[in-house]
Design brief:
The chain has one domain. The chain contains 6 helices and no strands. The longest helix has 23 residues.
Length: 155
């Protein structure tokens, strides 16, 4: 019989990507000069994802890097002038995807981000197995490549 993912894990993954959705929607809906507002609200969504993910410590890699990235964008958005942040508004949509995809790919040799979610479901004695590591590396590489490709320029 096939084991199904618990609702908690699926909910955790969805919540982890909610800040990206919030940011993406707001950057399209708000004027270019309000990139700081979009980033702040996405940062708050990322902070919520950090707060409700279990276990709380260590924080999930995807949630922590998303929070830090949107915090940086919020600071830049609020400290730059309305004309100066037009480049930020132009490039943050693709930039977020590329940066997040690159971070996912860079962390694969250290700890694939999917491993933290998989550990919630898999017995601890299997965490070091080659199969467990290989599956999580493959999933994280696929996610990282998809994220960077989806964010790249349209042809």
């Amino acid at each position: 019989m096939r084991k199904q993912l618990p609702t908690v894990i699926i909910f955790g993954l969805i919540i982890s990507f909610a800040p990206l959705i919030v940011f993406s929607v707001l950057t399209k809906a708000l004027p270019a000069g309000d990139i700081g507002v979009a980033a702040l609200l996405a940062g708050i969504a990322a902070l919520n994802a950090l707060a409700i993910s279990r276990p709380v410590w260590p924080p999930k890699i995807v949630n922590l890097r998303t929070f830090l990235l949107f915090t940086l964008f919020a600071v830049l958005g609020f400290t730059m002038g309305k004309q100066d942040d037009s480049w930020l508004a132009t490039w943050t949509g693709a930039g977020v995807g590329i940066v997040i995809g690159a971070i996912i790919l860079l962390l694969v040799p250290i700890m694939p981000f999917t491993e933290q979610y998989a550990r919630a479901q898999v017995p601890s004695e299997e965490w070091g197995s080659p199969t467990f590591k290989r599956i999580n590396r493959a999933l994280s590489v696929a996610c990282g490549l998809a994220r960077t490709q989806a964010a790249g320029p349209a042809s």
